[in-house]
């Protein structure tokens, strides 16, 4: 398998790799160093990339230059060189490539191995990103790295989204290739959601990726919580400098907290509309308040679909303190919002995304003796 540190793609990739290994397949992973701990915790031994350019999705003061850095990442041929070399060494029967590094596809396909593409965000986003109208689509075509190129087109797209929220028209995905929609893939399957107490805290967790305006948005959220009869736990990770924030007394700041461990004890989530965080919150039956950080992600699509389903509230990242405060009051006080989130959570808990993905990959080709992710 070939993956990269890009935020919400790590845990679904870990879950699929772990499921394949559980089924008896020999799974090997190429990943960035910052991802190795997550794979090791799942009993897997990832290997580092050697050929691609150095990469980090985090920046102290992100701006346009930070956003543009995703373009050469997507077209970097180094990922393909490393994966092709691994295929030649191992005799792998299948390679699963992350959709954010399509520049790897052509080189891997040239080895003759079967190739699947892991699409871990809304398919509609990738349909737009890979279109001729998109800067990403234009860049990939100029670089000879577009995934729709006949020499790069994967044998299968594995789309880890929920039908009904991410609607794939006529069964066709963002590329002219066979597509399976598995539902969200969780690193830890949520159990039965129990209603949280009315005095339970709210979780505030924006992206682990650095986006322009993220720190300012988080500060306005903290200011909006100040004075409300609400307790909150806010995680800041490495994408925001915590010492530049001014938290109120009713907010506990943490550098990191496992969402799977924290969410069973909270009553709502305030986030950025990231697919992984949002689906996990809903799987716990929690209503969500979402502030999409970038139009160059699927966050606006996720936020819009969840708001349309009546399970959450979407606001722009530039929302005022007063507007955020009103939304928090609704988030914690509207029984209908909580009920619709609970119903959507039932649907999500019924999905075995990792199992469906593993079955689709097994059907593509016999995976013995090795499967590369």
Give a written overview of the molecule.
With 373 residues, this protein is α/β, with parallel strands linked by helices. It folds into 2 domains: 10-186 and 352-372, Rossmann fold (3-Layer(aba) Sandwich); 202-349, Glycogen Phosphorylase B (Rossmann fold, 3-Layer(aba) Sandwich). It has 15 helices and 14 strands. The strands form 4 sheets. A 6-stranded parallel beta sheet has the order 10-9-8-11-12-13, sandwiched between helices. Strands 4-5-6-7 form a 4-stranded parallel beta sheet. The radius of gyration is 20 Å and the shape is globular. The relative contact order is 0.16.
Summarize, please.
The protein has helices spanning 10-22, 36-41, 64-68, 70-75, 78-90, 105-109, 123-129, 135-142, 214-225, 259-262, 275-283, 299-308, 321-333, 335-349, 353-364, and strands at residues 27-28, 30-31, 47-48, 94-98, 114-119, 156-159, 179-181, 202-205, 232-235, 251-254, 268-271, 288-290, 312-314, 371-372. The protein is an alpha/beta fold.
Topology readout:
Layout: H1 10-22, E1 27-28, E2 30-31, H2 36-41, E3 47-48, H3 64-68, H4 70-75, H5 78-90, E4 94-98, H6 105-109, E5 114-119, H7 123-129, H8 135-142, E6 156-159, E7 179-181, E8 202-205, H9 214-225, E9 232-235, E10 251-254, H10 259-262, E11 268-271, H11 275-283, E12 288-290, H12 299-308, E13 312-314, H13 321-333, H14 335-349, H15 353-364, E14 371-372
Parallel strand pairs: 1-14, 2-3, 4-5, 5-6, 6-7, 8-9, 8-11, 9-10, 11-12, 12-13
């Amino acid at each position: 398998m070939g993956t990269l540190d890009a935020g919400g793609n790590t845990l679904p990739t870990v879950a699929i790799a772990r499921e394949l290994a559980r089924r008896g397949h020999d799974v090997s992973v190429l990943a960035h160093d910052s991802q190795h701990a997550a794979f090791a915790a799942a009993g897997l031994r990832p290997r580092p990339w050697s050929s691609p350019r150095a990469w980090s999705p985090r920046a102290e003061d992100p701006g346009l230059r930070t956003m543009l850095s995703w373009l050469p990442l997507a077209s970097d041929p180094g990922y393909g060189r490393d994966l092709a070399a691994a295929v030649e060494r191992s005799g792998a029967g299948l390679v699963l490539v992350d959709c954010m590094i399509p520049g790897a596809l052509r080189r891997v396909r040239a080895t003759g191995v079967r190739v699947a593409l892991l699409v871990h965000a809304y398919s509609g986003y990738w349909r737009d990103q890979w279109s001729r109208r998109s800067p990403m689509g234009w860049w990939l075509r100029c670089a000879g790295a577009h995934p729709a190129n006949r020499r790069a087109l994967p044998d299968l797209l594995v789309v880890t989204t929920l039908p009904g929220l991410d609607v794939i028209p006529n069964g066709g995905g963002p590329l002219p290739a066979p597509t399976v929609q598995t539902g969200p893939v969780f690193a830890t399957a949520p159990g039965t959601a129990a209603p949280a107490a009315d005095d339970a805290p709210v979780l505030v967790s924006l992206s682990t990726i650095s986006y322009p305006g993220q720190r300012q948005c988080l500060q306005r959220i903290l200011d909006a919580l100040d004075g409300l009869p609400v307790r909150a736990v806010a995680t800041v990770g490495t994408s925001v400098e915590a010492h530049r924030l001014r938290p109120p007394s009713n907010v506990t700041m943490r550098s990191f907290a496992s969402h799977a461990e924290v969410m069973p004890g909270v009553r709502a989530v305030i986030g950025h509309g990231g697919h992984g965080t949002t689906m996990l919150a809903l799987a716990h039956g929690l209503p969500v308040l979402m502030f999409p950080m970038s139009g160059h992600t699927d966050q606006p699509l996720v936020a819009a679909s969840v708001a349309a389903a009546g399970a959450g509230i979407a606001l722009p990242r530039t929302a005022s303190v007063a507007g955020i405060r009103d939304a928090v009051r609704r988030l914690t006080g509207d029984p209908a919002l909580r009920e619709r989130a609970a119903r959507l959570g039932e649907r999500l808990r019924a999905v075995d995304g990792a199992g469906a993905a593993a079955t689709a990959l097994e059907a593509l080709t016999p995976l013995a003796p090795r499967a590369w992710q």
